[in-house]
TrEMBL record:
Keywords assigned: Hemagglutinin, Lectin, Repeat, Signal
GO molecular function: carbohydrate binding
Keyword set includes Signal: yes
Gene3D superfamilies for the chain: 2.60.120.740
Signal sequence, renumbered to the chain: 1-25
InterPro entries per the UniProt record, alphabetical: Lectin_gal-bd_dom, Lectin_gal-bd_sf
Lineage: Eukaryota, Metazoa, Chordata, Craniata, Vertebrata
Organism: Labrus bergylta (ballan wrasse)
Domain of life: Eukaryota
Entry protein name: L-rhamnose-binding lectin SML-like
SUEL-type lectin domain mapped to chain residues: 39-122, 129-218
Record has Transferase as a keyword: no
Pfam families given in the database record: SUEL_Lectin
């Protein structure tokens, strides 16, 4: 409980510090269908999701071809949407998804909905660690680690692919957010953790995986 409290305080401090330095928030919206893909990306830094909405808050967004009845409810939002987006996207440079990932219930039956995500590109230290290798997270003297995100699996066939058989790197739809890195490393000056199935479980059997970590170094508040 103390670790969670410390981690939340550190991340809040990082957010406030960067916001005061003029880091801007971007907003991406996709209409609710099976083909539209929401593409979040950071040219520099990593994605940190600030807000996310699945539902409808106005009559204008994604209104083309819709009847007035399908746009009538402008107080419609799915609870828990931002948590789903944060688990999938925080700490990554690129994150692609559509509304299917948050469509676990219907917050307003008969209403045409959309997925809107507000995110910020935060400066971060980013590491990619191949399976069975060790991540070595370190900060300067007097600073501590504050994790933005960690994902274990494979989303790119070229990463950690040297001398690996094709069948071990072809599954690029395999990734899961892992909390253990934050549990082990947040609030410490340095931390070592192994990128392995024993540590994080196996999200895709037979695929050679890697651990992707994004963090910042802060002075304790």
């Amino acid at each position: 409980m103390l670790l969670f409290s410390l981690s939340s305080t550190l991340l809040l401090a990082a957010t406030c510090s960067l916001m005061t330095k003029g880091v801007s928030t971007e907003s991406i919206t996709v209409c609710d269908n099976s083909v539209s893909v929401q593409h979040l990306s950071c040219e520099s830094g990593v994605i940190i999701v600030q807000e996310a909405l699945y539902g409808r808050l106005n009559r204008e967004t994604c209104s083309e071809g819709r009847s007035p009845q399908q746009l009538a409810n402008t107080q419609c939002s799915q609870r828990g949407t931002v948590d789903v987006l944060r688990r999938r996207c925080d700490g990554k440079k690129v994150c692609e998804l559509n509304s299917e990932v948050v469509r676990f219930s219907d917050p307003c039956y008969g209403i045409s909905k959309y997925l809107q995500t507000n995110f910020t590109c935060f400066p971060a230290i980013r590491q990619v660690i191949c399976e069975e290798s060790f991540a070595d997270l370190r900060c300067g003297v007097g600073q501590v680690i504050s994790l933005y995100g960690a994902h274990y699996g494979r989303l790119d066939s070229s990463v950690c692919s040297f001398q690996r058989p094709v069948n071990e790197v072809q599954n690029i739809y395999c990734s899961k957010a892992v909390n253990r890195v934050a549990e082990r490393c947040n609030g410490k000056n340095s931390c070592t953790i192994r990128a392995s199935n024993a540590e994080f479980g196996d999200p895709c059997y037979g695929t050679y995986k890697y651990l992707e970590v994004a963090y910042t170094c802060l002075y304790p508040v």
